Amino acid sequence: MKGPLFYAKILLFGEYGIIKDSKGLAIPFNAYRGALKSSKDLEGAAKDSNANLERFYNHLSQLNSDKVSFNLEAFKNDIDNGMYFDSSIPQGYGVGSSGALVASIYDKYATDKITVLENLTREKLLKLKEIFSLMESFFHGKSSGLDPLNSYLSLPILINSKENIEPAGIPSQKEGKGAVFLLDSEQIGETEPMVNIFMNKMKNEGFRKMISEEFATHTDACIEDFLSGNVSSLFGNVKKLSKVVLKNFKPMIPVAFHKIWAQGISTNDYYLKLCGSGGGGYILGFTEDYQKAQESLKDYKLELVYRF
């Protein structure tokens, strides 16, 4: 048995904001992927994954929802026969490792599933997102459902609000100097504690004001610039966003990166932002000159995502 491939995702813009109904833009990232496989002799990561699928099966069998049902018998049977999720997507890195797994299980075991080939109306997209949110809550305690949706559809997705999502056309890549890149913090980040910190901060009126007046405003401007290909305006807005995040989201930025985050803003060689919930994993970088950013960040591992 070998299932279809499901890819990692990158939330270019909108981390935390989408919890509070501002815009977001997520794109598939094909450098990392996963698929369901099975083996008679499970060991190491495959054995761990098989045990994790058993726990996920228990979660799905207790889901009391009229939105989705699964062929649980087939799922359990495949687990007992050595099924595991073979994935190159790093866990705790903010690029959707659990999302790809959720998408693969929905694809294989959901009865009456919404397929990628049908006309994806807004209602169908919202229904899928809701189903994936229920499924993925097993991994994070609370999930928007966006990571699995992105992985399942393998399309860029524009989140206008909780009730308004649509596939997005992003400008094709150019062979320019500019780039979006991933910076490896070489630390694992856990989603749930970071989201809890954010939710606690949201009890503060000043923080809420900053989210709506600064964070969401800059995020929306970045998304508009990116989708319309307005690169010169984009970098100005990404810089503003990077400053706001450094000032207000310090607990989500690994301490070792506070200095290089500020350095990017002062030199304009690159601008950093959170990739996912933060706390470790990848940090997302934007630069008008990728070569210059590579020189400035020569002590770190960078990975190219998109060229301008």
UniProtKB/TrEMBL annotation:
<dbReference type="InterPro" id="IPR036554">
    <property type="entry name" value="GHMP_kinase_C_sf"/>
</dbReference>
<dbReference type="InterPro" id="IPR001174">
    <property type="entry name" value="HddA/FKP"/>
</dbReference>
<dbReference type="GO" id="GO:0005524">
    <property type="term" value="F:ATP binding"/>
</dbReference>
<dbReference type="InterPro" id="IPR020568">
    <property type="entry name" value="Ribosomal_Su5_D2-typ_SF"/>
</dbReference>
<keyword id="KW-0808">Transferase</keyword>
<dbReference type="InterPro" id="IPR014721">
    <property type="entry name" value="Ribsml_uS5_D2-typ_fold_subgr"/>
</dbReference>
<keyword id="KW-0418">Kinase</keyword>
<dbReference type="GO" id="GO:0016301">
    <property type="term" value="F:kinase activity"/>
</dbReference>
<protein>
    <submittedName>
        <fullName>Mevalonate kinase</fullName>
    </submittedName>
</protein>
